[in-house]
Specification:
The protein has 531 residues and is of the alpha+beta class. The chain is built from 20 helices and 12 strands. The protein has 3 domains: 216 residues, no CATH class; 142 residues, no CATH class; 113 residues, Chitinase A, domain 3, CATH 3.10.50. The protein has a 4-stranded antiparallel β-sheet with strand order 10-5-12-11, with helices on both faces. The protein has a 4-stranded antiparallel β-sheet with strand order 7-6-9-8. Helix 6 packs parallel to helix 12 and helix 9 packs across helix 15. The longest helix has 37 residues. The protein starts with a helix and ends with a helix.
């Protein structure tokens, strides 16, 4: 068993690395992932292999799945319905692990964790490093901090459970799907496309020429103005005024190393969160019976805090008296009249909670103020459209000329196009180069070279590096070094096998859910929003 665990070290290392790199859970929207629960109307909590599930098992699976997503750093990418689906799949795999007797002792799990480099110093497990990581994780998971509860011990339990489940599910997946393989096929042609030394010529069509010559009439300018009154370029900026409370690090803590500073900011974040929660309605109150939320300024003063109010400011301007903070501005402009209190907002040296005080709406500016903007915009659009049409015509003409035996460079020069020929290069090396490319066309040309046959002309290809359009001709492709073919073939098949196994797993979970004695809870999606 331990041999298998060691083979999965990369998987769990990714999990551990996620612990260190996550942001505050209660910042932004991530903290809402499991807080908007809906009522469950069914007492059927599903069953697996003839054994009924309890509501406690479902809730526990959702919480464990949610914790795993946090540790993996994936909370921003999933919906509550997806949390529920993943929790159900986890339950199916855990029952399958029980059936296959895939079990791990606490010692095996911790021995495995001790071997992870992230918790080691000089190649040896360091308990202080592990405890520091778990202290950070406790804040990320918003674990209880009241008397009698050790949040670090709770974080260890959660983390070790996630590691255990990851290893068990990896073992089950390996047992169930290890024989799934994509069909074998000859990849030598693909290998040559990526690794064969290539010579490429290309013609460039620059839209600047077409933009400068595009004509725009006054009638077109007025029509654009009338048709798009909501275009931000034609309007004044909306401005906001907000009340706010700052929770700032003392000067000595502001100078701490990053790891210690993060812990200190997390503690401030919890205080700010407690303050922000005072403005949330009581979820147990009957509809319409909840009292109005407290006054922000009065509540802040009651808590011994120092509230303040900004002047009116726009999304890209800094309120007077505050340091520049994109997070502050973003939070201010995310508030609405129905949701006037922000989440906890992370600042450089602390956190903040905001309250929407007033909105100065955006207004349509007079036509004469924006006429030059509209003319430039229409001229740009017309010019780019003309350049695209020209590129399509030129590409078709070049393809026809080359098919009839003409030389690409000679034909392109005859059409008064700028033509270049690049030195011999290997497409894969160009596309994976870590250092910036000196030639802005090189990566675009490399992508095109992979898709072309020698002597073939491409369709027009947008080149984002300089907003030009390229028409590429693959002059020649030499055979690739055969020494790398076997490794390339293995990587291709491994990638295809992994994709196929993911599809097969989804099919297996759907099939398993429909077997006699197994069925999903009727309102499964709703459980994904249970905290």
């Amino acid at each position: 068993m331990m041999k298998f665990l060691r083979s999965q070290s990369q998987t769990v290392l990714v999990v551990v690395l996620g612990v260190i790199g996550l942001g505050f859970l209660f910042y932004g929207n991530a903290g809402n992932l499991l807080t908007n629960g809906s009522a469950h109307t069914s007492n059927d909590f599903g069953s697996i292999d003839g054994q009924d599930l309890s509501v406690a098992e479902l809730y526990d699976a959702v919480r464990t799945t949610h914790d795993a997503l946090i540790i993996h750093g994936q909370t921003q990418k999933v919906t509550t319905a997806q949390v529920a689906e993943q929790a159900w799949a986890q339950l199916l795999l855990m029952r399958e692990a029980d059936r296959l007797h895939v079990n791990l002792s606490d010692k095996e799990v911790f021995d495995y964790i001790q071997n992870l480099p992230i918790f080691q110093k000089d190649g040896v497990f360091d308990l202080d490093t592990y405890n520091s990581g778990m202290k950070v994780l406790a804040v990320r998971l918003r674990l209880p901090t009241e008397a009698g509860v050790d949040p670090v011990a709770s974080a260890k339990a959660v983390f070790e459970t996630v590691v255990r489940n990851d290893l068990r599910t990896e073992a089950v997946s390996k047992a169930l799907f290890s024989t799934v393989r994509s069909s074998a096929h000859d990849v030598s042609d693909e290998y040559d496309k990526y690794y064969g030394p290539s010579t490429v010529s290309f013609a460039t069509i620059d839209p600047k020429t077409y933009v400068s010559s595009a004509q725009v009439s006054p009638a077109e300018i007025e029509a654009e103005y009338q048709a798009h009154p909501e275009n931000p370029a034609y309007r004044t900026e909306e401005k906001r005024k907000v009340d706010y409370v700052l929770f700032l690090l003392p000067p000595d803590q502001a100078k701490l190393p990053d790891a210690q500073k993060t812990v200190a900011k997390d503690a401030l974040g919890q205080k700010a969160l407690d303050f922000a929660l005072a403005f949330q309605p009581d979820p147990s109150a009957a509809p319409g019976s909840a009292p109005p939320p407290p006054d922000f300024m009065a509540e802040a003063k009651k808590e011994g805090l120092t509230p303040a109010t900004t002047d009116f400011f726009a999304t890209d301007t800094t309120p007077a008296g505050l340091p520049p903070s994109p997070a502050f501005n973003s939070a201010a402009f995310a508030l609405t009249k129905d949701d006037t209190i922000s989440k906890v907002v992370e600042l450089d040296n602390g956190v903040a909670v905001l309250h929407l005080a007033a909105i100065q709406p955006s207004e349509l500016r007079p036509l004469d103020e924006v006429q030059a903007v509209i003319q430039k915009q229409l001229q740009q659009t017309k010019g780019e459209q003309n350049a695209q049409i020209t590129a399509q015509i030129m590409a078709a003409a070049l393809k026809s000329a080359v098919d009839k035996g003409s030389d690409f460079k000679t034909a392109a020069a005859g059409m008064k196009l700028k033509v270049e020929t690049l030195p011999v290069f290997v497409p894969y090396e160009t596309l994976t180069a870590k250092s910036p490319q000196t030639d802005p066309h090189l990566q675009t040309v490399a992508y095109a070279a992979i898709s072309l046959k020698p002597g073939e002309v491409s369709k027009p290809i947008p080149n984002e590096a300089d907003n030009t359009t390229l028409i590429v001709h693959l002059d020649n492709r030499a055979p690739a070094d055969p020494a790398g073919l076997a490794d390339f073939e293995n990587r291709i098949h491994d990638s295809q096998d992994q994709q196929l196994r993911e599809v097969v797993f989804e099919d297996w979970a759907n099939w398993k859910s429909k077997q006699p004695g197994t069925h999903r809870p009727p309102d499964l999606d709703a459980y994904g929003s249970v905290e």
